[in-house]
Amino acid sequence: MRFLYLTPAILFTVFTTACGKEELPPTIQCGQGTELKSNQCIAKPPQKQPETINCGSGTIRQGNECVHESMTSCGPGTMLQDGRCVPEPVMELPVGIHAFKGTNPHRSLDDLDAFGQMVGDARYVGLGESIHTSGGFYEAKHRLFRYLVEKKGFRVFAFETPWVDADAIRDYVATCQGNLREVMRGGAIFGVFAGVTTAELFKWMCQYNLKHPQDPVHFMGFDTQQPWNDGPALRKYLSDHDSSNETPSIIADLSRCFGSTSTSTLDYYQNYANKPWDQADDTACIAGFSNTESWLANNRQRLETASSTTAYEYAQIHLIGLRAWQGQIRADSNNERVTFKSRDLGMARVFQRLSALRHPHKKVAIWAHNLHLQYDTQVLDFYLHDDPNMGKYLKEDFGDSYQAYGLTAHELHINWGSIGMGLQEQRLDNRSVETRLNLLDRDYLLVDLEQCQSFRSDKRYGLGREGMKMILQDQYRGLVYLKVSRPMSYYTANQ
Q1: Alpha-carbon span 258 to 337, nearest angstrom
Q2: Mean pLDDT of all residues in the chain?
Q3: CA-closest candidate to residue 446, choices 143, 168, 227, 28
Q4: By residue range, what is the domain housing residue 38?
Q5: Of 448, 365, 463, which Cα lies nearest the Cα of 148?
Q6: Please, which pLDDT band fits residue 65 given cuts at 50, 70 and 90?
Q7: DSSP of 249-312, one letter per residue?
């Protein structure tokens, strides 16, 4: 009987004889490069070398073939299937929630039709932001405004910035004349909006006007934080058109309004901003408002004839602005929790009268914080909820012709030195809008709150950095969601 054994060194055979004795063959060891065959050492045959394959640019070796890189590695949102890249399967979106392709304002507008359907025939559309200085919101609003202009016939963009200084941007948008960087750095717009993206918006608007001189777009501000403009302009109008020496005492009272004798933003912050509040000055200022209002009303026909209907209306707007400013400073000085009541009422009235004066019958988009634009902050569980906001006044006056859209992000970055820099901590929980939309795994979403079933009209959901709980349908027509909103870049001298 024969058994085979293998050792690391040799192969040998053990023979078993009938008498039980074993005979072992002599051990044979072969040298390097040889092998044992038929009890002899012979040279090993040469090993076959693998064929060298060099693949060109854009291809890689797969087995013994060169294939294009796209056949083995696919880009974001795609996968390899049967040798080609195909879109990855994506979760179907709930009813009323629509994906769009991004915030780049130069993209095609075809993916924003859901937004257009929401807007419908509205004449006033508010585009908000959950916080200032987040650049993703600014890009999105630039793109949405382009859509409103090109697809829905909007012709005015009104900003939450003091309206007199903003006229420098209005002039640039109208003609493309002047140095936009110097205009923006010179105080024509609030610093929190003076970014590269807004500069690109203004450039686009003026280029649009060069191509459409008979149907231009317009820019305007509406904020009332400008005593250095409203105070001098109002006093001058009274002085220039006083035919019976009635206004000197009124002018004296108006001069006691806080900061109203300053001559510029710089002058105000250098020489007035830190002055203590004086109750006697406030009392005189309030009397000045009441007497100015009466004087304008009692002399309207004469004043409109002596100056013009337009000049008379501007005097009224300056009065609204200065009164709103005084109320805001009064609340701040008395450590009151809210300043919405005065400022937001003033902004609503300035917006209404200024847009009617300059752009009658035009469709207007409005750029401001979410809190200014939503329909009613008084119902919110939030520290600014005590008084009506601008959006409530607009909704009451314009009805369905006014719509508000809240902008928010799951990952929120800002560039606001006095408030914060970089990624912001948000009060998110499982009932937050941002948390729920993030689960849909899309970078950009439009939420139609009239059609969406994911946010019930009898439930409160958190929205924004502060996580304010609200019934969304009571506050907005729709939402614009960004997975990430990067910080704004300021429009500096090097750009």
Answers
A1: 20
A2: 88
A3: 143
A4: 2-43
A5: 365
A6: low
A7: HHHHHHTTSTTTT--SHHHHHHHTTTSPP-HHHHHHHHHHHHHHHHHHHHTHHHHHHHS-HHHH
Res. 11: pLDDT tops 70: no
118 and 25 in a single domain? The answer is no
pLDDT tens digits along 302-349:
999 999 999 999 999 999 999 999 999 998 888 775 567 899 999 999
The DSSP secondary-structure symbol of 2 reads E
Residue 220 lies in a domain: yes
- What's the residue count for the chain? 495
Tell me the C-alpha distance between 33 and 10, whole Å: 15
Residue with tokens 């300035």: 350
Please give the sequence-ordered ranges of beta strands (E in DSSP) within 165-230, or none if there are none.
218-223
Task: Tally Cβ neighbours within 10 Å of residue 323.
Answer: 25
Residue 307 lies in a domain: no
113 and 221 share one domain: yes
387 pLDDT more than 60: yes
Angle of helix 163-175 relative to helix 227-240, nearest 10 degrees, comes to 90
Q: Is 215 exposed, middle or buried (0-12, 13-18, 19+ CB in 10 A)?
A: exposed
Residue 139 and residue 105 in contact, taking contact as beta carbons nearer than 8 Å: yes
Structure tokens at 3: 């058994």
- Mapped onto helix, strand or coil, the DSSP state of residue 424 is coil
For the CA atoms of 382, 384, 386, 391, the dihedral, rounded to the nearest 10 degrees, stands at -110
Q: Please answer whether residues 350 and 316 qualify as being in contact, where contact means their C-beta atoms are separated by less than 8 angstroms.
A: no
Whether 349 and 425 share a structural domain: yes
CA distance 292 to 304: 15
- Indicate yes or no: pTM above 0.70: yes
Contact status, residue 366 vs residue 123, Cβ threshold 8 Å: no
Q: For the segment 229-288, what is each residue's pLDDT rounded down to a tens digit?
A: 999 999 999 999 999 999 999 999 999 999 999 999 999 999 999 999 999 999 999 999
The domain total for the chain is 2
CA-closest candidate to residue 226, choices 192, 253, 193, 188: 188
CATH of the domain at 416: 3.40.1660.10
User: At residue 426, what are phi and psi to the nearest 5 degrees?
Assistant: -115, 150
What's the number of CA atoms in the CB half-sphere (13 Å) around residue 461? 23
Q: What is the dihedral of CA 29, 31, 37, 39, to 10 degrees?
A: -40
* Coil vs helix vs strand at 465: coil
In a domain, 66, yes or no: no
Please indicate, yes or no, whether residues 141 and 16 belong to a single structural domain of this protein.
no
